[in-house]
């Protein structure tokens, strides 16, 4: 199993300056991946350009893989996006994992002048264009002129590793139609993820694609022996879930993992047993938790999963 981490401080614009240093810390601690989300128009915690920030992280790191949890394709020109992705893959020496998504914020689609009803078809169209460009197909072949190709092309061949962030059955089936791994959300419980994997695997079985070997899960995780601190963290995460979606509160169990080392390991074992998780992205941006406590939690996570990791 591979163990990765998201940036733990994205609280404001100034915090973005620390992302390269956060990536260095994650690499030095022994995490195999460092991941950034993408979000727009949410105030000082917005992160609109994950590839730009990962490029800065690439310049200060050597081995850790760099990932996006959901690089939003519908709002981008696909050729420009293909160039940006290829450039980052080149300067990171092939360390990019491209997690892609469609977006769900109505403000986002309105401001970018995109019909939300068309987001899945635009997503597919843009991804098709990007993949063909990375594979070296001509971008255009004007009559009587030389064809035009993407340059630079990615170091990873035929293109960077791609995972698909998905909510709901239609998105899961679309991820399967591409034969790409489904990147599970940090906001859905284990029972819901089990159902999602069943939907995804059933759709995958109807395609010409081989079985997908990578099963990535993103979870909000906090480990501490301090019972009162764990109770505080749990209360904050419950409040966050309530703000995001009332429906999430109807799940059979919470989507976050909070407790001491043994309880969190036992919970993670359930993900390994029930959905064959083999790549875990630990999300650590928890309101009310200091950076010191979060890094201590991450260190304990590394220790309790040592025998699971490659």
Architecture overview:
- It is a single chain.
- The chain is of the alpha/beta class.
- It has one domain: Luciferase-like domain (TIM Barrel), CATH 3.20.20.30.
- A nine-stranded parallel beta sheet has the order 6-5-4-3-2-1-9-7-8.
- Strand 2, helix 3 and strand 3 form a beta-alpha-beta unit.
- The radius of gyration is 19 Å and the shape is globular.
Tell me the β content: 5-15%
Q: Which runs of at least 5 residues are low in confidence (pLDDT < 50)?
A: none
Biggest pleated-sheet summary = 9 strands, parallel
Helical content stands at 40-55%
Shape: globular
Going by helix content, strand content and strand pairing, the class is: alpha/beta
- Helix-strand pattern, N to C? EHHEHEHEHHEHEHEHEHEH
- First-last Cα distance: 6 Å
Question: If strands are numbered along the chain, what order do they take across the biggest sheet?
Answer: 6-5-4-3-2-1-9-7-8
